[in-house]
What does this fold into?
Amino acid sequence: MNDQILQVNNLKTYFFTASGTAKAVDGVSFTMNRGQIMGIVGESGSGKSVTASSLIRLLPKTGSIVDGEVIFDGHDMRRIANRELLKLRGSEISMIFQDPMTSLDPVFKIGDQMIELIRTHKNLSQQEAYRTAVEMLHLVGIPEPESRMNAYPHELSGGMCQRVIIAMAISCQPKFIIADEPTTALDVTVQAQILGLLKKLRDEMGVSILMITHNLGIVWEMCDTVMVMYGGTTVEYTEMAQLYANPLHPYTWGLLDSMPRLSAPPVEELKAIPGTPPDLRLTGGCCAFYNRCPYMREICAKEVPPLVEVEPGHLVACHRQNGDKTLVRGEVNQDD
Amino acid sequence: MTEDKMAGTPIIRIKNLKKDYKIRSSKLGQPPRVLHALSGVSLDLFQGETLGVIGESGCGKSTLGKCLVQLTRPTAGEILYNGQNLCALSNSALKPVRKELQMVFQDPYSSLDPRFTTKAAIEEPLIIHGLERDSKKRRETVLAMLREVGLDVQHMDRYPHEFSGGQRQRINVARALVLQPKVIVCDEPVSALDVSVQAQVLNLFSSLQKRHNLTYIFISHDLSVIKHISDRVAIMYLGTVVELCDADEIYQNPRHPYTKALLSAIPPDSPFEKAQKLTLSGEIPSPIGDLTGCPLAGRCPERMPVCSQKRPALKEISPGHRAACFLYHQEEYAEE
It folds into this structure.
């Protein structure tokens, strides 16, 4: 059961705009096994959503995958024909987007939208599709699913809409779900319910989930492996427990330090990362984090740091953190 | 620190504040229904403290903030500031008071006029209140304010679209600060920002408070942010304050079932933290129409018969810790 479902090698997705080429994803590689939950963490503009959209070629016209390889369950997703891709999307791979209110069509009833999806991918009669839809709504914990089938999206709350989206996502028994910030628009108590639901799907149906989030708390709760992204590149990629116990990249340190912690004793000041995230039109040729990094050296501004396996299963892209040159967290700018 | 602040007289006293909105009925000829956004909030705000207000969407926390600065007029209740009841003042009598009560809004992108330069945005309140008629001196004041919030002279003549979210929020803070207010209501000022930038803005708020002896009402839905910045925390649910206590108490010793549920719904600080989960079933009931009993009664795991009949009052259960729950008002419960 523990075989690979997704392999991404050196993925590069660029956006060609009037003001220049934005390197939204600039060389990202990772693999996922069946039944695994992987998290991609990063701030806005770090390329985490574009990475996910690139997997199923769901990009706007200005963007395109310029290099790399995406192998999903034996399919080469970059070369596969559009017709084949349409079959995969929604049946084998489904996607859950951030904003539940805008992901559903406001002029169609919930039930009709679900039946349409099911009948597109499965050879079922109207009645059979209706029964499947009701069953799915029941599965995601929507009370009175029969009457909800006749509701329009605006009649449901945000949490309920997100449940409907999840019900749609699993209605064709996908092998793989991409969840792009599935709970960001929701309140915390509803978020807890939705996360519990996604975890249950993994445990009971063996679905692999790629979870995109900016909230490290969600990572601690949900994920098996984590990739931290910054400026379109992978900065750290390892198992979740490893990232928590022994984070190695300066950006990961900054991210962990700048989050206020509920269980920690009160502090006067948070350790913020100075500066702002980089302009993606200007990145490349150097470490994307060098101008905000307190451990910066000359080489950081000149060369792209390679992703190096620092310890078994722990990959870090940092000039100062490969092998013997080990940085100590918190000891800023101490010369070697 | 908190005790010194508590010893003073409150700078603002809110007494039984109510705000109702009339909602046109969906059926023709029927009387309008009433949405109770705030149903009886009483709070004291002390000089120099930060009072955090937390709750899920629709709990009335933003309405409370708007009522405080009289952006919307409350339906009933009193807000006492300097011995004056703000709710009873006319708009013209309110103008000098407004100078002392300022607000910073959530969305840094829509709260600045896109056609105003930074300088124009910051000097506008000075012109409105007739504080500085000499334009040269006004320029100096604006520059001093910009430096105060971490911007500089080169940012003066730029337009909002040229700034990042964090910088815009700094401009918003400068605009609120330029009138030298005593109280600033911050309505989710960091929710639209990335974690690394959020930490910078939170630090800015803390340092400004120390330098100018400001009093904050800090509204947020993020409990870890609230706990970090606040001295005291008010937890709101469906238009009422259900618990009011010191910021440290809320994590160490939550009393109200809703607070406990909120805490256990928040993603953990570490992967190894497995707190017992107290999940609320269902969703927040609609604030439309009259509600008898405790607002949480339908979802509460510890409900008693009395909960659906009477509304619990916010009462002190230990020094400096108030909760509105019948679990802690046994004597009152026994009388019935």
